[in-house]
Amino acid sequence: MPKADAVNPRTTPALRRKPDLALVEPSLPLEQTAPKATEEIYKSVRDRIRWTLLKRISEGVYRPGERLKELKLAQEFHVSQAPVREAFRELETLGVLISEHYRGTRVREISNRETQEAYHLRGYLEEIAAQLIPLERLQDEIANIEALQETMRGAALSGDMDGFARANVQFHRTIVSLAPNQMLLKVWESLEIGMRSQLTLQKKLSTMHLLAELHQPIVDSLKLQDLKQTGVLLREHSFSFLKEWT
Amino acid sequence: MPKADAVNPRTTPALRRKPDLALVEPSLPLEQTAPKATEEIYKSVRDRIRWTLLKRISEGVYRPGERLKELKLAQEFHVSQAPVREAFRELETLGVLISEHYRGTRVREISNRETQEAYHLRGYLEEIAAQLIPLERLQDEIANIEALQETMRGAALSGDMDGFARANVQFHRTIVSLAPNQMLLKVWESLEIGMRSQLTLQKKLSTMHLLAELHQPIVDSLKLQDLKQTGVLLREHSFSFLKEWT
DNA sequence: GAGGCCGGAATTATCGATAATTTACTTTTA
DNA sequence: TAAAAGTAAATTATCGATAATTCCGGCCTC
């Protein structure tokens, strides 16, 4: 039992101002593939801040290595330091930020080596995933996957890099999500987050067309329900993508 | 530049009391496979709290589903709420805790299904790792691996469950760490953390002996430098372990 | 006596201040 | 004049309070 020191602590009726957050809200157009029931994310100031920071990082607003100052952000968002710090801690654990004791926190710089390793590993994960997909589930989703491939082609033609990137992620993510192992998806996503901040930097139009076509064999072999082969293709796909810009 | 409002903020010479933390320190006998340069961990109150909480969870002091109250812990540690909350956020992102808005945070209950998935995936990861090991590195470490196998046998004989568990983790961890892909190790470790809290619950003496012997074929095939075969064994090893207690 | 409506107690979320530490700059000293 | 030593400013880490929300139990209503 907690000790009953002092008088009664909280007895105020619930009826006050809503927190301001003027500067958080506007920067949250809640577009993007809403990760959860959208409300969930907006419940706490901390969540909104985390979301906003992550968005800015993945958009390249904050560059790798850039220092993020707690009070500066707190001011910008019209909040106090605490929720900013808590958001920092979450993003730090996610591997997006890095902070040193009394020395501030900055956007983590992902080394070339690390990126390569991530792609490498991601390839293997996708291979495993593909091989585990139950054929029933595959049939239900194959149309969606093909549609995403078309979206990529379209985006490549119209030069819509952002749309391309989104469809690309979705393509792979969908395949992984079909495997009956949610842990696998979680791990895959954790790799994805790390790569996203890098991604903004090196997307070229020329590679976009190439990439779009590289997905075709994968779709084909999925349609043939040859999961073994699909797995191999996915693994090699990651590797080739890796070689593109190293 | 930040706005120079009010008077100068901080001008006090650094010379005050060190934080108390009476109740944190004693609960940190800093045993265990010290994760980093031990000092690193002790730098901030938050880190010590996180460490302590994680330890207690993995030791089963806090059970899955148990509610952890911020102020109660803060009192126990003689600190304020803030660092406790920050530690919570880190552990939450790690997947060890789970918290609901205004409803408190509790030790995350890992479902049977999730545990199975984790073991499943871990098996695959170890297979990949084994296949990537450069033979030179293997030669340097094979003696250590064999020693860990001996440690397991010894622990099984003397009924030292804790020692057994540690050697077991180290055995697998060492193998994974030999692969030239640190990301792989990181992912493997993230799975390990999740499983640790469960592990305390279901370790039986009988299975200990069995498990010790199950590692022998792995050691053998490593000594033969047959990485392909080692990988397969590791994968199957995880699967069999999984079947033991489902 | 089942459901709805307070009122208070407990707890989380956030705030505004203070302490501790680093950093950059100035001054001193040899 | 270069190293050392001090000093102020900037920033992080932690604290102690307050606001917001949930939870529980009694009381009323029908």
Description:
The structure is a homodimer of 246-residue chains. By secondary structure, chain A is mainly alpha-helical. The first copy, chain A, has two domains: 83 residues, Arc Repressor Mutant, subunit A (Orthogonal Bundle), CATH 1.10.10.10; 133 residues, GntR ligand-binding domain-like (Four Helix Bundle (Hemerythrin (Met), subunit A), Up-down Bundle). Helix content of chain A is 65%, strand content 4%. Chain A is built from eleven helices and three strands, in the order ααβααββααααααα. In chain A, strand 2 and strand 3 form a beta hairpin. In chain A, helix 5 packs antiparallel against helix 8, helix 6 packs antiparallel against helix 9 and helix 6 runs antiparallel to helix 10. The longest helix of chain A has 24 residues. Chain A binds a DNA duplex (30 and 30 nucleotides) through helix 3 and helix 4.
Provide tags for this entry.
Four Helix Bundle (Hemerythrin (Met), subunit A); homodimer; DNA-binding; 2 domains; elongated; 65% helix
**Basic shape of chain A:** elongated
For the biggest sheet of chain A, the summary is:
3 strands, antiparallel
CATH topology of the largest domain in chain A: Four Helix Bundle (Hemerythrin (Met), subunit A)
Helix segment count of chain A? Answer: 11
The most extensive contact between chains is: A-B, 30 and 31 residues
Oligomer: homodimer
The ordered string of helix (H) and strand (E) elements of chain A is HHEHHEEHHHHHHH
Report the β-strand fraction of chain A as a percent range. under 5%
Distance between the termini of chain A: 59 Å
**Derived structural class of chain A:** mainly alpha
For the CA atoms, what is the radius of gyration of chain A? 22 Å
Number of DSSP strand runs of chain A? 3
Low-confidence stretches of chain A: 1-37
* Highest-level CATH class of the largest domain in chain A: Mainly Alpha
Q: What is the correct CATH architecture of the largest domain in chain A?
A: Up-down Bundle
